[in-house]
Specification:
Alpha-Beta Plaits, Asp23, 195 residues, Asp23/Gls24 family envelope stress response protein
């Protein structure tokens, strides 16, 4: 059985379990494939964020709220596994018709996740690009699922997240984004250094 036979394998063949083991060994010995593969590097970053989140939640004073159920972490890991696949190739316009440039859907999802997680009090658990993103100019919607910090203004954080998502997509893609839809599905206690 090859790595490609695993359901949790990335497009390059590396599995989430292999990446998790690699992180557990503090990325030693250095694996040249993992350290140079964009899919692996995105997956490592996502796994590190979730690891920090889980450690911080365990360490946090959860007197006001109980710790999130184990299924919460499982949902996040499942979403990360699904989203780390390269997915569709999204076109980037270029003035020379002989030049074709694309960005993978996985890279755009990683961009959205990184942009959202950079907001203090927000943790992105799922991203989705809905619509014909493979056709330049076709309208698409972005669906983001997030957890927000207990005691913060959900309205303020979702407004900020929407602005950040629009700005990141406008700067790095040619997607015709007609809506950024945000669902807050979890509230977490104070977390340090999640982004």
């Amino acid at each position: 059985m090859t790595a490609h036979d695993h359901d949790d394998a990335l497009d390059c063949g590396t599995t989430i379990d292999q990446l998790s083991d690699y992180l557990d060994r503090d990325r030693t010995p250095r694996d040249p494939h993992i350290e140079s593969c964009p899919d692996c590097l995105n997956a490592l970053e996502a796994l590190e964020r979730v690891g920090r989140l889980s450690r911080d939640l365990i360490d946090a004073d959860a007197a006001e709220l109980p710790a999130p159920p184990e299924s919460w972490f499982e949902r996040i890991f499942t979403s990360i596994q699904e989203e780390l696949r390269a997915g569709r190739s999204l076109p980037i316009s270029h003035p020379d018709p002989r030049v074709q440039i694309t960005v993978t859907e996985g890279a755009v999802r990683a961009l959205l996740r990184d942009s959202g997680d950079a907001i203090d009090g927000v943790f992105i658990s799922r991203t989705e690009i809905v619509g014909d993103a493979e056709t330049l100019g076709a309208p698409v919607e972005i669906n983001l699922t997030a957890s927000v910090r207990f005691g913060t203004s959900i309205q303020h954080l979702t407004d900020e997240l929407r602005e950040v998502a629009y700005a990141a997509l406008a700067k790095h893609t040619d997607l015709n984004v007609v809506a950024v839809n945000i669902s807050v599905e979890d509230i977490h206690t104070d977390i340090k250094d999640v982004s």
